[in-house]
């Protein structure tokens, strides 16, 4: 039997949900490693819905679980039903939904609240010493919940290639150790079994983002 890995989604689409390319890369690489992905999402309303053509919020209302089901091809469960006992690892792809629907990072930064369901799941995997893979913006969840942990969101100096580098500084303010890494690299916090990679925090070709996520997934499966 291959490893059973929980993948937690936050909707569908970079600006208000899970980043689709990152989510797809996670699922492809898990399949390649012979692991079984079990997809979950919280059954809650999105913070808001963004028109991805205009980049502007709309008046629409959407549900995180219903939208995440688009990526999971309908094969998805309510996050409230996740049981850590039957699972070997956890992976959370990025996208603004992590900062809007799984937490309030988008509006409150380091003073954010992580949704109770998401916090409980992260703490359960951590307590069971099971590996957790996080990419793009999702390492902020660990930064908030596990003080002193080691993470990467890429680089900590803002430039055209690293437009979201201020995130690293905020994570340091939470007491974390941020490690600068290229988009195709990962960082492993051995003590906390956290594996992180920057993904779309970097303005990089999509194949480099895909490769970095592949390394993250391989290491998560290896640690499981």
UniProtKB/TrEMBL annotation:
Gene3D superfamilies the record matches: 3.40.50.880
Highest taxon in the source lineage: Eukaryota
Stored InterPro entries: Class_I_gatase-like
PANTHER family the UniProt entry points to: ES1 PROTEIN HOMOLOG, MITOCHONDRIAL
Name the record gives this protein: GAL3A protein
């Amino acid at each position: 039997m291959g490893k059973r890995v929980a993948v937690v989604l936050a909707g569908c689409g970079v600006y208000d949900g899970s980043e689709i390319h990152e989510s797809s890369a996670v699922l492809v690489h898990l399949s390649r490693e012979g692991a079984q992905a079990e997809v979950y999402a919280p059954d809650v309303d999105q913070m808001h819905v963004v028109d991805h053509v205009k980049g502007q919020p709309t008046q629409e209302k959407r549900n995180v679980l219903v939208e995440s089901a688009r990526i999971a091809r309908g094969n998805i469960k309510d996050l409230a039903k996740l049981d850590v006992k039957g699972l070997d690892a956890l992976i959370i792809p990025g996208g603004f939904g992590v900062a809007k629907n799984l937490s309030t990072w988008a509006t409150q930064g380091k003073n954010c609240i992580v949704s109770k369901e998401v916090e409980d799941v992260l703490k359960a995997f951590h307590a069971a010493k099971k590996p957790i893979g996080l990419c793009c913006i999702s390492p902020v969840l660990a930064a908030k919940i596990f003080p002193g942990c080691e993470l990467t969101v890429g680089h900590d100096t803002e430039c055209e290639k690293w437009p979201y580098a201020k995130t690293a500084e905020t994570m340091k303010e939470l007491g974390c150790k941020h490690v600068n890494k290229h988009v195709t690299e990962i960082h492993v916090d051995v003590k906390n079994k956290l594996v992180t990679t920057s993904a779309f925090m970097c303005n990089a070709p999509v194949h480099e983002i895909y490769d970095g996520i592949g390394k993250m997934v391989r290491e998560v499966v290896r640690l499981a």
